[in-house]
């Protein structure tokens, strides 16, 4: 403006300003008060309460929402903004605007550099959302770092979590497919399914049902605790592990044994025999009841899982929840899973043993080059009577997961019984864990000469590697000059090589025994 200078004085009132101006530039000056007195960070400091009707302390928004509880922000503006909000809040309202500050890290590129146009390393979130989905990006951001640490963001990590989104979607599709044709009454029953307490609802549950429900309840406790501690990284990783592992890879596959058992029951027996027909009818009713129970468990577990994942991935979880039996209008208003629900620790231990057994069969298939789809015989040696009873009950599940021929699978209590039960021609013995062993009659199922040649090559390579490692350890100069940590590392390499060598020699011995028995 004309006649306006660029000289300023800072004072508490007009009289003090006039006194300062006269002392610095002489009398007779005309002072004009600046109308724009709030800089960016100063005005931001007023934000928690100025947006709620302050200075009117009786404003409804102010009384309802001030103070709040948690502020979430980047650590780089702790002094610029957070401290100012706290100081201004206390000075002007008498209360701090919040009681907790959660500081997240900065998003950097995959090399840890700050994103900038000059480096050309800026990742446009809108482009990422367009390509991989908002849920995948949100989940990546949430679990990719711990509080206060920066996140090195790469598209590969987002892609991995897009695959996780697909895993959830496919699990939902599987459950939806199982519900095709169910009556309206059963749909309502499924929506109200509740296995939170170990009451009458647990009586008809199989081992895999009790296992997955117990793991879900443990997960709910863990995730809730992590959320309350703002440990979103650990919460997200736990959700990922359960959804992909315990639920999708294990329970969904195990559930097929009970879901599809009705088709087997309906084709067994003879319609010409009244007692056989009655038996078949009873078996069909039992199978139908088991399938209904399994559907209820699938819906219950998936419903609670979606609730736990919803804060991380709101869009896909809402879409899946709406397509399945549920109570309420929207997932974001559904109640959070409760603490301390029923957990069957025995079921967890028993199913973990079953998983190890299945892994043992699967590993043997790979090691001996068996066709993955070919069903084989097996003898399960279970020393514990209760464990033996459980494995006998779960033979359908074991056979399904391990691709065993159910009619050629037996459960015994010791090795002598196993030898008597095993088919002629020799078997491969696999120790799963203490008290649990597998005998697999693999004679004739793979080329023994070719397998021995392969194992001999492996043995020669490991022996060569072990010789080189031991050569260093037996060299006094190496031991004298190398650091203690490096020597310990080399000794660990030697122990690992020795273990691999022992394993190969054991396999060679087993294959040679199969040759002799054949």
Would you write up a description of this structure?
The protein is an alpha/beta fold and 518 residues long. The chain is 60% helix and 8% strand. The chain has 21 helices and 8 strands. The strands form 3 sheets. The protein has a 4-stranded mixed sheet, sandwiched between helices. Strands 1-2 form a two-stranded parallel ribbon. Strand 1 (70-74), helix 5 (78-93) and strand 2 form a beta-alpha-beta unit. Helix 11 packs antiparallel against helix 13, helix 11 (232-259) crosses helix 17 and helix 12 packs antiparallel against helix 13. The longest helix is centred in the middle third of the chain and has 36 residues, at 274-309. The radius of gyration is 34 Å and the shape is flat.
Quick overview:
This protein is α/β, with parallel strands linked by helices and 518 residues long.
Total number of helices: 21
Which secondary-structure class do the elements indicate?
alpha/beta
Strand content is 5-15%
Task: Compute the separation of the termini in Å.
Answer: 107 Å
Strand order of the largest sheet: 6-5-8-7
Q: Could you list the spans in which at least 5 consecutive residues all have pLDDT below 50? A: none
Overall mean pLDDT score?
87
Shape: flat
C-alpha-based Rg, rounded: 34 Å
Residue share in helix: 55-70%
Order of SSEs: HHHHEHEEHHEHHHHHHHHEHHEHEEHHH
Largest sheet: 4 strands, mixed
Count the beta strands.
Answer: 8
